[in-house]
Amino acid sequence: MNHYHYTESGLRNIWLASGFEMVETNYGKGVAIHDVPGLHRAIGEAIAKKPWITGSELRFLRKEMDLSQRALGQLLGITDQALAKWEKTGRVPKTADRMIRLIYLEHIDGNIPIRATIERINDTDRAEYERMTAEESTNGWRIAA
Q1: What Cα–Cα distance (Å) separates residue 116 from each residue in 48, 89, 107?
Q2: Which of 70, 76, 77, 121 is closest to 103 using CA atoms?
Q3: CATH of 35-126, one of 1.10.287, 1.10.10, 1.10.260, 3.40.50
Q4: Which one-letter DSSP state was computed for residue 7?
Q5: pLDDT of the residue at 61
Q6: Which residues pair with 32 in a beta bridge?
Q7: What SS3 string covers 99-119?
Q8: Res 16: pLDDT
Q9: pLDDT value of residue 135
Q10: 48, 92, 127, 137: which could form a disulfide with 101 (CB 3.0–4.6 Å)?
Q11: pLDDT value at position 86?
Q12: Which residues of the chain have pLDDT under 50?
């Protein structure tokens, strides 16, 4: 049986034994992978249950949670530059490594507070406030975005 080296995941160590087929396209041979979301969940769970993660595995988990470097950095209390460095060098501090794996596992298990926090951070990360307007009312000051 031929295995397929699944480099599209951003990871160099993933090989598929099944769940794919080779297809002819207008551009030549290609591969069709069945149930990519299920595959990515299985990869993510396996990564999160390892004793430690590499920089590329950190990037994979971050992207599976649909978080930018900035958003995950905010969640962890670090800068996006620090997170980028961890992803590039592969040197993830032990505490951050554990926290990232825990957040991912809770996220895929449907932990509502974790999901809500991630969605709130994503919304904040996507929103750009160029100007804030303050309004005073009888109840005090309010910022209108």
Answers
A1: 20, 30, 9
A2: 76
A3: 1.10.260
A4: G
A5: 97
A6: 21
A7: HHHHHHHHHHCCCHHHHHHHH
A8: 94
A9: 83
A10: 48
A11: 97
A12: none
| Tokens (6 digits) for 13 | 């160590």
pLDDT value at residue 131: 62
Q: What is the pLDDT of residue 28?
A: 93
Say which residue the tokens 């290609």 belong to: 30
What are phi and psi for residue 23, nearest 5 degrees?
A: -130, 155
Please say whether the dihedral angle defined by the alpha carbons of residues 61, 101, 34 and 56, taken in this order, is positive or negative.
positive
Q: What is the pLDDT of residue 132?
A: 65
**3-state DSSP assignment of residue 133:** strand
Q: Cβ–Cβ contacts within 10 Å for residue 108, how many? A: 18
Among 97, 105, 113, 3, which residue's Cα sits nearest to residue 55?
A: 97
Asked if residue 33 lies in contact with residue 19, where contact means CB atoms within 8 angstroms, the answer is: yes
What six digits make up the tokens of 78? 């670090």
Q: What pTM was estimated for this model as a whole?
A: 0.76
Sorted by where each begins, the domain ranges of the chain are 35-126
